[in-house]
């Protein structure tokens, strides 16, 4: 049985007020390294998050608080508003979308709330569990597209040698603060080409591929960084084309559940995974992989593949399921969080 994780509260002008943090989910503790924390600081300290975002963006803390509160009520609000303001067509890559990525602050809010979801907490715990099962410490792990750095902080706290790579400069600034507050050492890279070929024991890439114009190209680049027998742990909801995910590209729906086009060409073979591929684990192997599915994992992987392939033909159903989960998660967060009206 799990316990809900409490949230901090915000006082006037975004200043700190007393908060109570409940323990992390108890059923996850058995897979954690003694020094690991699946909810790294300041994930449950909203006043601290407001302070960091205000400092990074130069935005008044009162406005940051209002935006963050709206994002808690409905994730994707900041991105949707900014996309409409800039006249960007959602779900389609274009010069305007590229400019949006470079200029917006909205992802700071969206990514923070996503990291506070229980769904993300479970996904992070599974990534760590799969690494502990297949990739002994102190393995070298590249986390590609970690945004605010919470996954890197958790893995570094668990004893892995972690490399953070994120193209967003403001996200990187937030991540640096996360690493400092959690007292972990994380190598920061700015360009995938700077990562030596066959230098990583594992690569973690969560919720990135669905945003890209050419997902197989990035998969090939990541595979090139893996040692022989190295692992790619990934999650990509390609079929989620909905109002809370306006930067997911519609053209990528075809890759939902598609092993042959995404992974087989670069010798990535599935060896483990969770239901609905949250996440899926693949080994870089020229012939037969060293690792093998257990019976339960094989069943979950196969059922997940069948479902994900089917929703590639009917993505509206998958989007409806994802939106329903997002609404449920937001309601949970709102119920846990006390907000004072800013002056």
Order of helices and strands: HHHHHHEHEHEEHEHEEHH
User: How large is the share of residues in beta strands?
Assistant: 5-15%
- The CATH architecture would be 3-Layer(aba) Sandwich
Instruction: Based on Cα principal axes, name the global outline.
Output: globular
Q: What is the average of the pLDDT values?
A: 89
The profile of the biggest β sheet is: 7 strands, mixed
Quickly count the helices.
12
Q: What is the CATH superfamily classification?
A: Vaccinia Virus protein VP39
Task: Give the CA-CA distance, first to last residue.
Answer: 40 Å
Q: Spans with pLDDT under 50 lasting ≥5 residues?
A: 1-9, 11-32
Task: Give the strand order, joined by hyphens, for the main sheet.
Answer: 3-2-1-4-5-7-6
CATH topology: Rossmann fold
**Would you state the CATH class?**
Alpha Beta
Structural class: alpha/beta
Number of domains: 1
Share of helical residues: 40-55%
Rg, Å, rounded: 19 Å
* Strand elements, count: 7
């Amino acid at each position: 049985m799990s316990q809900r994780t409490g949230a901090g509260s915000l006082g006037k002008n975004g200043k700190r007020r007393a908060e109570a943090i409940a323990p992390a989910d108890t059923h996850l503790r058995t897979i954690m390294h003694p020094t690991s924390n699946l909810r790294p600081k300041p994930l449950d300290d909203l006043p601290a998050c407001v302070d960091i975002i205000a400092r990074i963006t130069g935005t008044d803390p009162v406005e940051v608080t209002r935006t963050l509160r709206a994002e808690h009520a409905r994730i994707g609000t900041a991105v949707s508003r900014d996309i409409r303001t800039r006249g960007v067509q959602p779900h389609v890559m274009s010069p305007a979308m590229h400019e949006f990525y470079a200029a917006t602050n909205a992802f700071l809010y969206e990514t923070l709330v996503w990291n506070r979801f229980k769904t993300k907490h479970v996904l992070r715990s599974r990534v760590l569990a799969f690494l502990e099962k297949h990739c002994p410490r102190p393995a070298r792990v590249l986390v590609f597209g970690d945004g605010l750095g919470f996954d890197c902080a958790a893995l570094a706290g668990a004893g892995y040698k972690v490399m953070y790579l994120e193209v967003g400069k403001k996200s990187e600034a937030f991540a640096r603060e996360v690493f400092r507050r959690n007292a972990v050492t994380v190598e920061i890279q700015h360009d995938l080409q700077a990562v030596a070929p066959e230098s990583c024991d594992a690569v973690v890439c969560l919720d990135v591929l669905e945003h890209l114009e050419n997902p197989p190209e990035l998969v090939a680049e990541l595979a090139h960084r893996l040692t022989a027998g190295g692992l790619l742990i990934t999650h990509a909801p390609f079929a989620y084309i909905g109002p809370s995910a306006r930067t997911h590209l519609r053209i990528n729906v075809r890759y939902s559940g598609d092993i042959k086009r995404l992974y087989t060409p670069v010798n990535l073979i599935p060896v483990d995974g969770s239901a609905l591929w949250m996440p899926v684990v693949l080994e870089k192997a020229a012939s037969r992989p060293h690792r093998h599915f257990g019976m339960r994992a094989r069943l979950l992987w196969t059922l997940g593949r069948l479902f994900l392939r089917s929703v590639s033909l009917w993505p509206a159903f998958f989007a409806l399921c994802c939106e329903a989960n997002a609404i449920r998660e937001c309601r949970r967060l709102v119920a846990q969080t006390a907000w004072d009206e800013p002056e």
